Fold these 3 entries.
Entry 1:
Amino acid sequence: MSSHLTLVALANTVIPAELNTAFIEHAKVLGISITKESAERVHPNYFTARWTCAQALTPEARVAMRNIAGEHDVDLAFLSSGFKPDEVRVLAMDMDSTLINIECIDEIADFTGKKAAVSEITEATMRGEIKDFKESLRRRVALLAGVSADVLDSVYKERLRPNPGAAQLMAGANARGLYTMLVSGGFTFFTEKLQQELGLKQTQANTLEIIDGKLTGKVIGDIVDGAAKNTYLEQACALLNCHKRNAITMGDGSNDLPMMHGSGISIAYRAKPIVKEKADAAFDRVGLDAALLLIA
């Protein structure tokens, strides 16, 4: 079986010719063959270009090529020779800082003056420095004890916004008939509202305990961590009689990696370095809906 790769460049403006030169020169250093296909604009908002690479790239080479693209203000995706766009059936996404612009738990904490303490734990967890997501979430939620449940609605109305291209991505995915999932280590209060707003087929998240109109600082039931995200995705694929390789996955933090590993395309959206290094695509400039170009 061929082990070639397709490199897909995605940008908000015309992709400079200098990028092709830079790619070819670096490919020579690597001792590999790379050939540019014709550039085309296939979406109203983005420009794309594709290259065929004659062999697989080492992780170090992928980082180098991605860095070269970044120097030209371009995002880059690596599509394996075995990837079949027309066989994609599922789109599974993280919520906080992926589908939406905030970490909800940090914003809830901000209403109590504890954002710095909670954010510190959140950031360390997403970078992979705190390995136990469940313990991390319990520590952060405990800091919210006594907060009025009304704060959740305030966060949703005043601070939560879908990230660029979110609505277009969901509309395009639903029109294509994909099974759209939101699998979040965040909270059901927000995922359920987003499900209604964006037309998601399934959402999974954590439930905050509320008694007498106040958060107790506890989570009800099992916590959705990285392993659970992957399990929910695999269960959805089983129900659809397909494989994880028939899924697109998108995330930004280390707890998204189990879900992203082994999927047809994994996309790191404005993600932590540990996630970008392992993902097939890294979106730092284009919007979420650019994912549709990878399955066109």
Note: The radius of gyration is 20 Å.
Entry 2:
Amino acid sequence: MIGAAVAAAALLLPAVAAPAEEGDPRQGRRLAAQSCQGCHGMDGISKQANAPTIAGHPVDYFIRQLTAYRDGGRHDEQMSIAARDLTDEQIRALAAYYSAIELEAVRIPGRD
């Protein structure tokens, strides 16, 4: 009977742990205001020619890229410096914030 209870608890563990893996978009917004908006903008739409638009990127993609900058797997002079001190929690928060921004394409008549 105890073995069944332990097994049942083990099945519930991933469900309990999952929310801790999700980033806090409010924290991400605060971090973006401090560190990201100069190049990427608060709306995630690039403000500089050499900085990509990051709004709407999937969370997992965003996390992989920012982690690669932090850990040295990807290099860019500005991003490597900006990401080097970010924690996993901060990276998840930024990913949650920027991935939640929805972009909409607008068709301009006569420019097909």
Note: Confidence is low (pLDDT under 50) at residues 1-20.
Entry 3:
Amino acid sequence: MNTYQGGCHCGWISFSVSGEIDRLLDCNCSLCSKRGGLLWFVPRAQLTLNSPRADELPTYRFNSGRIAHHFCDRCGCAPFSEAPGPDGKPMAAVNARCLEGVDLSVYPVSHYDGRNH
């Protein structure tokens, strides 16, 4: 299992995440289409927040409010979100563009029509 380092542009949000990237998801919902993330889904336990403390993360919720979209209020990057997965277990949606040293061009990208779901 690989461990990747990630975070926001200025470094205030820093995390490590373990797993094997097998595919990325490009969502066209109103938020994802504006911020341009490519999402990699992992169990939340595989993401370790290095900084800041979890209770200090700025968070945006919209629509059902189910997904906690975390972002840096200093540089504006949105490195990951978290929510219960389909089975109810905590999941993280990591913005793969916020991972260090990862060549995203080698992974297949699935498109999700979040705008209409």
Note: The chain has one domain: 2-102.
